[in-house]
Design goal:
CATH superfamily: Luciferase-like domain
Radius of gyration: 21 Å
Oligomer: single chain
Strand content: 5-15%
Number of helices: 14
Order of helices and strands: EHEHEHEHHEEEHEHEEHHEEHEHEHHH
Number of strands: 14
Strand order of the largest sheet: 1-2-3-4-7-8-9-14
Shape: globular
Distance between the termini: 28 Å
CATH class: Alpha Beta
CATH topology: TIM Barrel
Length: 394
């Protein structure tokens, strides 16, 4: 990057909202604590830090061995005034009319803040733990039917029956209504089936952090599928990163390599080729290069076998904020950032990263041009950054 164009790219989102993942206890990938329980004091503190830090949403994850996402989302709704809880939901675990009822109840309790992220399921063994033996392609077909039934359950004015490929019921409804209108539905994934369902039906489509050009082509793909389905409102784009920040780029790289040694030790049990396409893509990027664009680091994906969102943004708050703006310029309007030192990182992002991004977006809205943050904090576009990244690897 030798020159900087102050004009706002035509693909840029004019606004961005921030997401974090809620953690229920102090266990981290840096220092795991053997526990499946909820540390209520910690959970309250964590959620309060998100509200105070200016986040807009928090994701309540779901797995066969985790706390229930509906219950934890309801707790978040009562512990906060503004944060929007995102319920991770697997269609195999909750019948669609019941899921619609639960989500509408959460939406009423939070006065319109509920969001749902539907997980079709990327791992056969994990799905089987709760009795789901559908093959992956069928799981996305089930998600498609599920989305339709959620929306019908929220809006049908009279009882209706359904006899589909995966669900059947008689004379349901009228269902319990959301607070106002509908509830945003998010879908993620990198398979052809995920794109087909998400493009046609999702309000939000979710990606893990990828190199800028690759992500842009994926955004184009999902938006074209939406247009092909006759949609005039395109899905919002959600992208997830694991930033590692410090006062300077050099100090951030020292922290990053300390982190990755600890994470690698704790993830040594994850081997073999992942089933889901998103993890396969993340590992392919990691095999090709450790560093992409301004600040994207893939080593964290490599050492975890891409078990979940794991690509990092490394640098000073200014460099990481500039890198986030690069993705906003590609069309992302929902940015999920969560750290490896979970609570401390969430606080630091709220203090040092979110304000920089919002300041730049406000500048753009006022002036119609990009500010200087991306021009002045070049990260990997300047030679010294790469020297910092490699100087401490041994």
């Amino acid at each position: 990057m030798t020159t900087f164009d102050t004009s706002i790219p035509p693909t840029a989102s004019p606004e961005a909202e921030f997401i974090s993942l809620s953690h229920l206890n102090p266990s981290t990938e840096l220092e795991p604590i053997p526990s499946r329980g909820i540390d209520l004091t910690y959970f309250r503190r964590y959620v309060r830090s998100l509200e105070e830090g200016g986040y807009d949403y928090t994701l309540l994850p779901y797995g066969s061995g985790t706390a229930d996402s509906f219950v934890t989302a309801s707790a978040v709704g009562q512990l906060t005034e503004r944060i929007k809880p995102i319920v991770a939901l697997r269609p195999n675990t909750t019948f669609p009319t019941v899921g619609a009822q639960k989500l509408a109840t959460l939406d009423q309790l939070t006065e319109g803040r509920a969001v749902v992220h539907i997980i079709s399921g990327g791992n056969d063994a994990e799905q089987a733990r709760q009795g789901d033996y559908l093959p992956k392609a069928k799981r996305y077909a089930r998600t498609s039917e599920y989305v339709d039934l959620l929306r019908r359950s929220w809006t049908e004015p009279a009882p209706f029956s359904h006899d589909g490929e995966f669900y059947k019921f008689d004379e349901f409804g009228p269902g319990f209504a959301p607070y106002a209108g509908s509830i945003p539905i998010s879908i993620g994934g990198q398979s052809d089936e995920a794109f087909a369902v998400g493009g046609a039906k999702a309000d939000i489509f979710s990606f893990w952090g990828e190199p800028l050009a690759d992500l842009r082509s994926e955004i184009d793909r999902v938006h074209q599928l939406a247009r092909d389905a006759g949609r005039t409102t395109l899905p919002r784009i959600w992208v997830t990163f694991r930033p590692i920040i410090a006062q300077t780029d050099e100090l951030a790289w020292r922290k990053a390599h300390e982190y990755v040694k600890l994470v690698e030790a704790n993830f040594s049990r994850y081997t073999g080729k992942p089933q889901n396409v998103g993890s396969q893509r993340a590992l392919d990027f990691a095999n090709r290069s450790d560093l992409y664009d301004r600040a994207l680091w893939t080593r964290t994906a490599a050492v975890t076998n891409a078990a979940g969102a794991s690509t990092a943004l490394v640098g000073s708050p200014e460099t990481v904020a500039a890198a986030i703006l690069d993705y906003i310029d590609q069309g992302a309007s929902l940015v999920s950032i969560r750290g490896y030192d979970t609570l401390a990182d969430a606080v630091d992002y709220g203090r040092y990263v979110l304000p920089l991004v919002r300041q730049e977006l406000a500048h753009r809205k006022t002036t119609g041009q990009r500010g200087r943050l991306q021009a002045e904090h070049l990260g990997n576009y300047a030679p010294e950054y790469g020297e910092f990244a490699t100087a401490v690897r041994s």
